[in-house]
Amino acid sequence: MSQSLEEFRRFRESLNERILQSDHRDIKRFFALDTRAYEDGALPARTKELLGLVASLVLRCDDCITYHVVRCKEEGVTRPEFLDAFNVGLVVGGSIVIPHLRRAVDRLDELDAADA
Amino acid sequence: MSQSLEEFRRFRESLNERILQSDHRDIKRFFALDTRAYEDGALPARTKELLGLVASLVLRCDDCITYHVVRCKEEGVTRPEFLDAFNVGLVVGGSIVIPHLRRAVDRLDELDAADA
Amino acid sequence: MSQSLEEFRRFRESLNERILQSDHRDIKRFFALDTRAYEDGALPARTKELLGLVASLVLRCDDCITYHVVRCKEEGVTRPEFLDAFNVGLVVGGSIVIPHLRRAVDRLDELDAADA
Amino acid sequence: MSQSLEEFRRFRESLNERILQSDHRDIKRFFALDTRAYEDGALPARTKELLGLVASLVLRCDDCITYHVVRCKEEGVTRPEFLDAFNVGLVVGGSIVIPHLRRAVDRLDELDAADA
Amino acid sequence: MSQSLEEFRRFRESLNERILQSDHRDIKRFFALDTRAYEDGALPARTKELLGLVASLVLRCDDCITYHVVRCKEEGVTRPEFLDAFNVGLVVGGSIVIPHLRRAVDRLDELDAADA
Amino acid sequence: MSQSLEEFRRFRESLNERILQSDHRDIKRFFALDTRAYEDGALPARTKELLGLVASLVLRCDDCITYHVVRCKEEGVTRPEFLDAFNVGLVVGGSIVIPHLRRAVDRLDELDAADA
Known about the structure:
Six copies of one chain form a homohexamer. The first copy, chain A, is mainly alpha-helical. Chain A is built from six helices and no strands. The first copy, chain A, has helices at 5-21, 25-36, 45-59, 62-74, 79-93, 98-115. In chain A, helix 4 (62-74) runs parallel beside helix 6. The longest helix of chain A has 18 residues, at 98-115. The first copy, chain A, is globular and about 40 Å long. The A-F interface holds A 1-2, 60, 79-80, 83-84, 86-87, 90-91, 95-96, 98-99, 101-103, 105-106, 109 and F 2-3, 11-12, 15-16, 18-19, 22, 24, 26-27, 30-31, 34, 37, 55-56, 59, 61-64.
């Protein structure tokens, strides 16, 4: 894994800021919609983060997977629950998902090690 | 919507049967894995069906969406919960998801009308 | 082509209305962002509709293609310009785009016949 | 299956002709490249048609699948070979491929019935 | 961003050369079609590069995005025009496009800094 | 190419092991199905590896491409056969495949150099 979680966060924060500073009203609104999509509503934030994780797995976006793995962990998702969600992503999306699953598990191990 | 829910079900059942009758051991095992992925486990069936629904939305597969809309309803997912899940799919997958969202809402209306 | 342009429009309008009536604030906002994305801005509406058309081609969404073919024609896009845009979509997206290209050309012929 | 193999062929032929008549030089060249990609070369046509079939399955394009199922059958691909190729497509592409697999098997049955 | 624009260019040039040297006639013809797709025609090169950029965004290919960002800048596309094109890509393709948007903006900043 | 073939192999092996150790029965079964999909059957392993390679190309997964390039070479696939398979992937998947084709050719050169 070439990029640490810390580098990922720094690049993400810094570029998001540059995008929002460019002051394109509708891009800013899209970013706001994206944030709110995962807040408590009819479905709780925890479930929505799992939805975001599996959507990211089947669409095979490593950065999105990393983001939702971190958020799911903050919402208290347990290792067996992660594995069940990974399994849904794997069955729906097929073996093409496996390289992303490897990196997701690596991120999860990195987060668990930081906790220990 | 050219195909009724009833036609969808008949075609799905009949062809699944023909696929399983062809007796390719590993295709049969894949179908078994697919069924089990949505059964109660570390995550409950209800959450897993929502995961399947959003994965199907962002991958834009009408038949898969129809199947998971039906199953989510059987698991007691409410209209506001459906809308929250649709919203996650829409934000993650973008406006290209909208035609599938229209058909998903049409299916849901069809199911609700059948209930009434 | 199983569905006429008129049927497409009716289904689209009627379902969009049902989605907006369901009154999910953020889904409504997404629909508003989607509309505004194609309005005159730094880039003119005509160019943005061409962008929407080619994005729909490479993502292979027939309903989205139909919608943008209609809008491009309203913006005065000529047949040779359509063909150039189709060619970009075909080269970027590959032969998997061809079935959608066939349906796009059929829609364009249908629109031209209605004009004549 | 809403469209018969015969209707599929007629629409395909007629629209391909209209596209080629529009006389866009590079679209015509793309169509020529597409045809030649499946001709005997370092790999035989039979293998190339199987490659086209599995690529169409994982990209989930029904028209492309139908086309390559027909061509594979002309190249003498047997039912057990089809099932092995379908299985690769299913494992790589996941359960999202299943609705297309059902339609592929239905096409194959239609072709076999026409032979009988 | 692990790879500089200069490294990207060198790898791209060197491998394109190796591919063309392998002397597969139809791969060479595909590369020629790809080049010509963005030349002035019924639509000007500038518009075609914007089409290539948005197609690359929604298909989420960083290398293709980098290439078209560079070419758009050469064609005189302004920052507000880039943002409008990014917004179309974001709305059509959804939040899954955001990591690629971050890298696109980073490339654009890199190009502007080189100009200054 | 930031990651050597050796690093790719080590990361792949080590993470696959961690995934299998997590002891999720159905994830393990999926991995077993994935392995068996490429074994001799009605179609020989060599053909199946070519199917896996082209599926990986059109789905644009570098790790999967690397894996199948290595396996195809072990099965005795020759350079002209690789080029024919690459050409099918390129025509079906379009120019968006080109960056992955560059990396595939680079891997193949790396393997050939190791042989020499």
